Amino acid sequence: MNGATAYAVSKHSQEEIALGLGRTYGVPSVALRYAITFGPRQSFHNAYSGLSGILAQRVLNGQPVVVYEDGLQTRDIISVEDVADANIFVMEHDDAEFQVFNVGTGRGVSVLEFVRVLASKLGVEPQVEMPGEFRLGDVRHIVPDVSKLAALGWRARTTLEQAAQAYADWIVDQPEVRDNAGAAIEDMRGRGVILQARRKAA
User: Fold this and answer.
1) Any idea what the Cα angle at residue 125 is, between residues 120 and 127, rounded to 5°?
2) Vertex 10: Cα angle to 85 and 140 (nearest 5)
3) CB atoms within 10 A of CB 31
4) Is residue 202 part of a domain?
5) H/E element holding 167?
6) Which domain holds residue 35?
7) Which tens digits make up the pLDDT trace of 159-179?
8) CATH no. for residue 189?
């Protein structure tokens, strides 16, 4: 773990506490680090709860999707079904005890690719706005090394297209998918979380 953000440091300390207590009291413990997880029943009411919810809010209300940087920043995006399967897997394997594992697909997906795939499953041609902004503290690429868990025999099995289809099938049946993202974006701009990129002189 080499994270420099407060979020990363807090997560690492929680892992150490959980594994330390497990060793001390003889309780089998495992720490899992999830990649970007999405799927049916994920809250879409909170504009801060994830890329899939923000995208669905915007496109289902005919609003443009705001993409930061150039949209080519990458994330490992995994189905919640695979995450649940990984949890069961480590509970059933004694050789996973007192270890830390990354849980992901091992594949980087650009923000623009995710917008395109999920919007297509929603049956919408998305409007994309790239205002040349960035979010303070965002990491350009986050694709964890999943080889350690793969060595024990676990791998994600759901493709991005399958996961996006499952999410789309669920969310289109939900009532009142309101666009809360627009107000959240303005709030973050006002707080200095979203900043305008400096343009290089010609």
Assistant:
1) 125
2) 75
3) 18
4) no
5) helix 160-171
6) 6-196
7) 999 999 999 999 999 998 998
8) 3.40.50.720
d(CA 36, CA 50): 8
Residue 1 lies in a domain: no
Question: Would you tell me how many other CB atoms lie within 10 Å of the CB of residue 6?
Answer: 9
**Helix-helix angle 160-171:51-60, to 10 degrees:** 50
Tell me what pLDDT residue 141 has. Answer: 95
As a 3-state breakdown, the chain gives helix, strand, coil percent values, each rounded to 5, of: 40, 15, 45
> Structure tokens of 8?
């990363």
45: pLDDT strictly greater than 90: no
Residue 56 lies in a domain: yes
Q: What angle do CA 70, 76, 79 make, to 5 degrees?
A: 125
Degrees to nearest 5, angle at CA 152 with 148 and 153: 115
CA distance 125 to 59: 8
The pLDDT of residue 182 is: 85
Contacts of 171 (CB under 8 A, 6+ apart): 40, 44, 56, 60, 122, 177
pLDDT in tens, 84-142: 999 999 999 999 999 999 999 999 999 999 999 999 999 999 999 999 999 888 899 99
